Amino acid sequence: xxxxxxxxxxxxxxxDAPPEPDGLWNIPHLWRTAVEQNLLPVLAYxxxxxxxxxxxxxxxxxxxLLYGTVATNLNRxxxxxxxxxxxxxxxxxxxxxxxxxxxxxxxxxxxRTFGDIDLLIHPEDRQKVHNxxxxxxxxxxxxxxxxxxxxxxxEYYEIHTNxxxxxxxxxxxxxxxxxxxxxxxxxxxxxxxxxxxxxxxxYTVCHLAKHLYGGGAGLRMYLDVALYIKxxxxxxxxxxxxxxxxxxxxxxxxxxxxNACRVWFGTKTICPLPEPDTEALDRLLSYTLDSDxxxxxxxxxxxxxxxxKDEAPSRSRVLRKMLFPPAAEIESRYTFLRNRHWLLPLAWxxxxxxxxxxxxxxICQMKQVTKTDKASVETYDGFMxxxxx
Length: 389
Hints:
- This is Nucleotidyltransferase family protein.
- It comes from Faecousia intestinalis.
- It holds the Pfam family NTP_transf_5.
- It contains 18 helices and 7 strands.
- By secondary structure, it is α+β, with helices and mostly antiparallel strands.
- Among the domains are: 196-298, no CATH class; 301-386, no CATH class.
- The strands form 2 sheets. It has a 5-stranded mixed β-sheet. It has a two-stranded antiparallel ribbon with strand order 6-7.
- The radius of gyration is 22 Å and the shape is globular.
């Protein structure tokens, strides 16, 4: 019962229909899972909508959390509108992606929380944006290609010159594909643009693939896709979208995600789908619930070994690459390496100082690599291939 209650709640959320649990709701389990999946406001909304719980103390807590989330996210969007107007005033074209537009698919937009607001800019505007953000009182959090982040109080922005900062091993170059994002931009307000629906849907699924491939992806990422389908099914060009995923060598994963939304959340679509692999979807659901939004609680050692290109993964080789990655893997961030790979030792040094706060977790991951056996890698690899990754 415990493994099905939270997905049942999300099915109710997507379908706007009362949930029908087998037995009483397990409040501690639901609360814990909602926190891990960054979906506590959805639990609060469901309780308000359908009166799930009888305990008045629990209901008061959830109501307070719901109203607080709505107020906080409204303020964050107002702050962004102000920043967006400033970008326009300074002649900077910008395109929000992910949460800022996906939130409009939710029953109450503020239920779609986001840790940051992602903005795509033209590479030639990078220095102009940097100067503007500093002049507006923002502090630099991360400063390397192709992602830069700035914070000020509750505001947190990631500025991208490319929507993808990495690739999936052995597949079409996702960085090159999403480098063409501006060809899919539509005017919104001033110099703010929004991504075309087809393109944004493809990006949403590819972003999920990137996180799942690299460690984990929570239920909210699948929820985004399900609500996208629910609201835009008739207007999306499914044949063209499926063709893009074929070209990206991600067709199997695309159908896995579509079927996951169909099985988990009851999402209906006019897109032709193969019969779902229910065993694989059950395992994917269990895998997803056994982590947080970005898989941070997952043991990444198996993934490090699985993603190595060689047929016979080597612990020592993986450890060397973790410490001293080749130029081809990091030149998208350390752009001074392009056509100047002889500067690789300098890039390693810059990388070390830029990531000092991550050293303890990286050491932990390296220790885990030394303890991971071949059988674990093969089991994980078989599962990932079964779902299209």
